[in-house]
Design goal:
By secondary structure, this protein is an alpha+beta fold. It is built from twelve helices and eleven strands.
């Protein structure tokens, strides 16, 4: 994802010039002269180019530059945090210690266990330095954080999964950033992810930093959304007169009501009982032996398809597995959020939304048809 190789071979990206529009028919004709499924020459060529770009000294300089930009951004975020003092600010998930200049050493980014012992530090300093990640006890030195992948943490949720009285959901921050020209890679509940890719424009992170400072100012002043999120309000007029802080609090309380941080973890760790083979469950679709079941009645039913929340994009259920209480509770949360907070909907593959004759939105999942039906 970071190099110049083509990872999506099914797409050819084209940007038309102002003067000459691409003739897609002629392009396809020419492209077919140089392509084959065995092998796919465009992929092979792109891999060769990507490998050549990484050869030293040019490749080394490109990588070091992206790491330097990422560390400059991290240092700038900490400096702003110090300037705000006791006031709130966004945190960057990462080691407590950062080198004052340069890119430092790889050792700085190795994730150590909470129980790690070190002769080079005091016990207290060592404990503080190894607890930043919140993973608890794990294989010491087995994992490493890539410094160019920056996770920005918003206020409202601590590492133990406890909600604060007020908070700033990350989904609202990313919508704000999008309207200020900053595209976020991934968004969670109270964190979002940005990546300092190879070839990034030097100092480009200043745009993000300025936008985050503007968000804080608008939040503290509770500015109306029609002023700061005009494109979003055009799609969802119900938010026009609402203040930014009021919206953050509304969504935050929705998250806290369902204890969603723990729920999203527990549902993946819950006991999942397969009732039949995935192939047998999936075959019910072709045999038209499925039943669309409303969320409230899903517990104990067998799914005929994948149920996958985004993020993280990891299948929660595969065909043949049974809906349990934890999963149904999560789907109920998703229903309430989608109903009460349009524009901040959760995306769940396998969840079907239908509007009834009464105009009410209802949510269903396709299951193996019950013998009682």
């Amino acid at each position: 994802k970071l190099l110049a190789g083509i990872s999506q071979a099914s797409h050819v990206l084209v940007q038309d010039s102002q003067n000459t529009k691409l003739d897609t028919h002629l392009f396809n004709e020419a492209y077919l002269m140089h392509t084959s499924t065995s092998p796919q020459y465009s992929i092979i060529a792109s891999c060769d180019v990507a490998a050549a770009m990484m050869e030293p000294p040019g490749g080394t300089a490109l990588v070091e530059e992206s790491i330097m930009e990422a560390l400059d951004f991290r240092r700038a975020m900490r400096k702003v945090d110090e300037e705000y003092g006791d006031d709130w600010w966004f945190k960057l998930w990462g080691p407590e210690h950062l080198v004052e200049e340069g890119i430092g050493q790889a050792e700085d980014w190795i994730i150590h266990s909470d129980g790690r012992k070190s002769s080079s530090r005091s016990k207290k300093a060592n404990k503080a330095a190894s607890r930043w990640h919140g993973f608890g006890k794990l294989a010491d030195g087995f994992n490493m954080l890539d410094p160019i992948k920056a996770t920005i943490v918003t206020p409202g949720l601590n590492l133990d999964g406890e909600f604060d009285t007020s908070g700033v959901p990350a989904s609202i921050v990313t919508k704000f950033l999008a309207e200020h020209g900053v595209v976020v890679e991934k968004t969670g509940l109270y964190s979002f992810f940005i990546m300092f890719t190879i070839g990034i424009t030097k100092g480009r992170w200043n745009t993000l930093l300025t936008a985050l400072q503007q968000f804080k100012d608008d939040y503290d002043r509770n500015h109306p959304l029609w002023r700061i999120l005009p494109e979003f309000c055009q799609k969802h007029p119900r938010y026009e007169r609402m203040g930014l802080r009021d919206l953050c609090q509304f969504v935050h309380e929705m998250y806290a009501k369902y204890d969603i941080a723990r729920l999203t973890t527990d549902m993946y760790l819950s006991d999942l009982s397969p009732a039949m083979k995935p192939s047998d469950a999936y075959a019910h679709i072709a045999q038209r032996k499925t039943e669309r079941v409303e969320i409230d009645y899903l517990e104990g039913r067998i799914t005929v398809g994948l149920v996958t929340p985004y993020p993280p994009g990891i299948p929660l259920l595969i065909p043949g597995e049974v809906f349990n209480k934890k999963i149904v509770d999560y789907l109920k949360f998703s229903r309430d959020l989608n109903t009460n907070c349009p524009g901040f909907e959760t995306d769940i593959h396998g969840l079907v939304e239908e509007v009834g004759v009464d105009g009410v939105r209802r949510f269903y999942a396709d299951c193996v048809k019950s013998s009682l039906s």
